[in-house]
Input
Amino acid sequence: MTLLQIKGLHASIGDREILKGIDLEINEGEVHAIMGPNGSGKSTLSAVLAGRDTFSVTSGEVIYRGMDLLKMTPEERSHEGIFLSFQYPIEIPGVSNVNFMRTAVNEHRAHKGLAPLNAAEFLKLMREKMEIVKMDPSFSSRGVNVGFSGGEKKRNEIFQMAMLEPKLSILDETDSGLDVDALRIVASGVNKLKRSDNATIVITHYQRLLDYIVPDIVHILYNGRIIKTAGKELALEVENRGYDWLIKGQDD
Output
């Protein structure tokens, strides 16, 4: 079943157009990788899907589970199952992981008409999900990402994803700054959360992440447009040949 349809999406920041006509369709159960050189519009696409108001959508449409995504607030998008893992996770001093996640989980449950989890139920769930990314339980009492290493911040993002169980996860350069061991743990967590009724968009520069999170479809984004789509072999070809052979003649 189709989860997300993007048709002719154009988006700008100020008077600078960044996305210049994105067409993309994602079905349930699929993993899509989006690759491309710096400045191609990859992070802009993720931000637009998540609802960041820094960017203005000037034309096109985005249909998510039959709904007009562009008319939804960021909170509504989250409640309906969209999750964005940030390239640079922010710190939230004074707010513990446990309180942050309990509020988020119960807000999502309320949206679905479910009763909030009590303290014992929530802590049991939290321990189970922390195990997915090998997080120390002591992290639950610490401020959100405060004093965390780069790898710990990325693990915390995937832990949040596990707690919220999104329908569409957008991972914006989750591999950035990770060593090999942390990369394996984070990727393993993502793979454990894959289901037949959800989907993942993986935004990355490198094949190394895709060795662990194997995509069904790879898209190359350049100058605000998807210029090539193919299977997982495309990422290997980019690793070996770079982007020059793809982007030659693509500039306006």
